[in-house]
Amino acid sequence: MAWGALVGDLRKNHHPSSSLATLNLIVGLFNFGLNASPFITGRLGELFGFKRMIAIGITISICLLVISACAVDSLPALFVCQGFLLGCAHGISLPLFMTLPSQWFSKRRGLATGMVVSGAGFGGGAASLILRAILPSLGYRYSLLVYAAISTVTYIIGWSLLKVRKPPLRAVPQRFDTKTGLPPGIWRDGAFYSLMASVSIGVWGFLSPFYYLTEFTTKNNPSLDPNSLVVAVPLIVANFALAIGRVGAGLFADRIGPANAMLLTFFAGGILQLAFWSQLGEGQFGATIAFAVLFGLFGSSFFLLMPAVASQLFGLRGLATITGWVVTSQSPGQLAGATVAGVVLTSAGGYSGVAYYAGAMMLGGAMLILPARFMRERRLFARY
């Protein structure tokens, strides 16, 4: 979530001949690796233990951050190390920590998951603030090393606090009668494909504001120092708002149902980009901050809802594996979404085109969750 604070410095001081669309392919490859691997790693966690697999993932992640810092002047090395491989390393842990709250909570599962996943927002906001402050003096390489050191301490503390709850034998069988670990019959269930299609399409527009807000603010506010922390304020507040919004969305999901909540967060994100971001012009710094806050609060919560929606639709059996498949459905959009937004930016000559493209994709995600929702619950205003 802090990539928007880094990409400007990377382009200015290391790869000035590369476009934003090209450099954003680094984070696209990271997101592809992050989201393409969980359908395997979720199953590995169930077979070999959550804590063991998470420890392997964070160790590899730290090593790759250090390698990326050393290889900052090589764009192919950044594509491979800071991009695809780092994403795969993070993908080892992703479906595991996302499903841990569902092991401990039943009545307040959405709120618990929201509080866990909100760490991405608080962490992204803190990382954006720190990186933007130290980049001018330390540069990209040493800033990334500082980030690796902070991540190491955070990972160790977080890992030491993890505790896995074994499901009761009579409630959830230890062995599944399918080779994949998925519940029998799920491949014939239209709700499974509806959920994956919703996430797969909606994610194409979800990350564009986070990746482009800093550059957008710099361009639309020429009176601001482009090297100052001020131009990163919208990105920073968006990340903190995302953290608060995910906690609120978890609580909201407990009240109206996770499937309904996912529909609404995709819809809100799409409308905010189409009707608000697209209309922002030069000198509207305060309005840009307002958009960042609103998008973080209301349009960025689908990610935490995935395991809650999966458990609502399919139960707890093989939940980490199911969540892994749903997360994997994001991989095309995570790979190319930011790059396509860069192409739209170049072709349209302004950020309004990016807002229309990204907003439309999030509205598509909202529409595609409807079949899964009505397959399980046909009443329009029912909690589901």
Automatic annotation (TrEMBL):
InterPro entries reported for this sequence:
MFS (IPR011701), MFS_dom (IPR020846), MFS_trans_sf (IPR036259), Proton-linked_MCT (IPR050327)
According to Swiss-Prot or TrEMBL, what is its membrane topology?
Multi-pass membrane protein
* SUPFAM superfamilies named in the record: MFS general substrate transporter (SSF103473)
Q: Which Pfam families match?
A: MFS_1
Q: Where is the Major facilitator superfamily (MFS) profile domain?
A: 1-377
Q: What residues form the membrane-spanning segments?
A: 20-41, 53-71, 77-98, 110-134, 140-162, 191-212, 232-252, 259-277, 289-310, 354-374
Residues in the signal sequence: none
Compartmental location: Membrane
- Quick one: where is this thing mainly located? membrane
- PANTHER family in UniProt: EG:103B4.3 PROTEIN-RELATED, MONOCARBOXYLATE TRANSPORTER
Concerning its family, UniProt says: Belongs to the major facilitator superfamily. Monocarboxylate porter (TC 2.A.1.13) family.
What is this protein called in UniProt? BY PROTMAP: gi|472584389|gb|EMS21983.1| MFS transporter [Rhodosporidium toruloides NP11] gi|647395274|emb|CDR36565.1| RHTO0S02e03862g1_1 [Rhodosporidium toruloides]
The organism's taxonomy opens as: Eukaryota, Fungi, Dikarya, Basidiomycota, Pucciniomycotina
